[in-house]
Write a structure and sequence with these properties.
The chain has 271 residues and is mostly helical. It is built from 10 helices and no strands. The protein has one domain. Helix 4 packs across helix 10. The longest helix is centred in the C-terminal third of the chain and has 28 residues. The chain is globular, with a radius of gyration of 18 Å.
Length: 271
């Protein structure tokens, strides 16, 4: 199973990496919209009929168009960041809130908001001619996309391997029993440390602000993963689909990234 996961992840990372690097801005925007749409559809189909899921997806595609307006772009990013912060409380108190989370309106709105925030975040990066607006000294927006993805990958990988070798105490056992406190602590310390010196070359920010930014995005990636696990437990499924061998669906694979991107853009705009 682990071998299958590694092979699938490597192939997916290679293909997506090539597309991110080589596609023109407009085609990359379409690709992100497609990825967000597939991920949202997976999230919807486990709770709604195919017909209702398609109707909600059409509404999502309409909202994607208004995301290109600056006000709505910031609005969706902010709503997504706030939703993940609130979901942290729900994660800690689960399953006491299971009935509320299963509510169709809550399910549909949460799916729409997090995917709109994900798309809007990447669109903001792609559409910037001058990244100094984001307190960045680099000029390649593709590098910034890879950098944010790397934060989530490091968090997930370090937590997994540290948890396997050192883990004894459960972490958020109510939504993800396989995760350990030791794995989480190792990842939340190691990820900012590994990326700190690279970040100093990228960000025109103070040392403390850079550390806070890395720490916050790392925490949000954990919340994103836990949010997906919680929603799967609400309706008692293992994966949102079987699209990717060994990983489940696209949303299963992207859950931490979908949370990390809005957090990064929200905070970097504040700084």
């Amino acid at each position: 199973m682990l071998k299958q996961r590694i092979i699938s992840a490597a192939i997916l990372a290679f293909v997506i990496g090539l597309l991110i690097y080589f596609l023109r801005d407009d085609f990359l925007t379409y690709l992100v919209a497609l990825i967000a749409s597939i991920s949202l559809l997976e999230f919807l189909r486990v709770r709604f009929s195919n017909l209702i899921s398609i109707f909600i997806l059409i509404f999502f595609l309409i909202l994607l168009a208004v995301t290109h307006l600056t006000f709505f772009s910031y609005l969706f990013i902010t709503l997504s960041a706030v939703l993940y912060l609130v979901s942290a409380i729900f994660i800690l108190s689960f399953p006491l809130n299971k009935t509320l989370l299963k509510n169709t309106f809550v399910w549909a709105c949460s799916g729409l908001i997090i995917h709109l925030g994900f798309y809007a975040s990447i669109f903001q990066i792609i559409s910037q001619d001058d990244l100094s607006q984001f307190s960045l000294s680099i000029v390649n927006e593709r590098f910034l996309i890879f950098y944010i993805i790397l934060i989530s990958i490091l968090m997930d990988s370090i937590a997994y391997f540290a948890g396997k070798s050192l883990g004894k105490r459960p972490f958020i056992n109510n939504v993800s029993p396989n995760k350990t406190m030791e794995g989480f602590l190792a990842a939340i310390v190691a990820t900012p440390l590994v990326l700190f010196f690279l970040s100093q070359e990228i960000f025109e920010l103070s040392v403390l602000t850079t550390i806070f930014l890395l720490f916050a995005v790392a925490i949000f990636s954990v919340i994103g993963d836990a949010f997906a696990s919680m929603m799967k437990r609400v309706i008692e499924i293992k994966d949102f689909s079987n699209l990717i061998p060994g990983h489940g669906g696209l949303f299963d694979r992207l859950d931490s990234h979908i949370a990390a991107f809005p957090c990064f853009i929200f905070l970097i705009n504040l700084f």
